[in-house]
Amino acid sequence: MVEIRKIGVVGAGQMGAGIAHVSALAGYEVTIFDVSHERAQKGVETIAANLDRQLAGGKIAEADKEAALSRIIAADGAGALGDADLVIEAANEDEAIKRRIFAQICAVLRPDALLATNTSSISITRLAASTDRPERFLGIHFMNPVPVMKLVELVRGIATSDETYEAARAYVERLGKAMTVSEDFPAFIVNRILMPMINEAIYTLYEGVGSVDNIDTAMKLGANHPMGPLQLADFIGLDTCLSIMQVLHDGLSDSKYRPCPLLVKYVEAGWLGRKAGRGFYDYRGETPVPTR
Ligand code: NAD
Fold it and tell me: Which residue pairs, CB below 8 angstroms and at least 24 apart, start in 138-143?
């Protein structure tokens, strides 16, 4: 079994930064790669700010923060992933982008290195087949925000070897996360259930059944959800929500997964939620204001 010491993370966005954060805190050396060094460096800055928050909340000590930061490097190019034992891809939820990344990085990875994807919905078997190492490929699906959420879903493709699966289990255990295992079907377990609920909340808004505020309050106080579904959609990213609905719709060929046209409109407007400053809420002022 490959002993995992060095982790490569592709994508320094919300999820990539979170994966690098928890991996470095758990003692792994981490190289974070994005489309440019600046972008990767921005991810490291986000991690530093999130570590500060954990420090202020008494969750970690100053020494833990310093040690974690000292273990993270922002990559200058894909070549920096060459000595990684495990690379976790966390770029946009877009199969074409992910395939291009795998082609680029397989050329520099060690032959025995493991490759994982944090995809929320795309077939692990199909992604694996586009690489030179389907038996050393699997889904390691973290939840957002990674430092806070306890769960990781592990997803084996048809070719994933037992050794790869066991190495991934050991990695997730060392992070102190809980694990569930899902079969490789569209959107796995969490998003197969969660995303149609969010899509239905958007239909509820689209059809005028309720306002943003009424829908979120109804589900927070009426179903005891910690966050309303529209607030959660903004938090996840509306582009990611739409991609997951498209994977469910295409993969299961059932009209019940039809993405809401209002979700499509928000994505087309570039109103992608929190990360873009605007989605079902406008985050540009002091407090979020509903946009409908
Ligand atoms: P994001 O938009 O915050 O970040 C994506 C990052 O990928 C960006 O920094 C972008 O520059 C980078 N990227 C794009 N093309 C690249 C390339 N060719 N090479 C290197 N980097 C590239 O997205 P996110 O919310 O972090 O989601 C990333 C992945 O994690 C998606 O597959 C998503 O489905 C999955 N995921 C998201 C959530 C969530 O709640 N947002 C939860 C679990 C899993």
Answer: 138/114, 138/164, 138/165, 138/168, 139/182, 139/184, 139/188, 140/88, 140/116, 140/168, 140/171, 140/172, 141/182, 141/188, 141/190, 142/15, 142/18, 142/19, 142/22, 142/90, 142/118, 142/177, 143/190
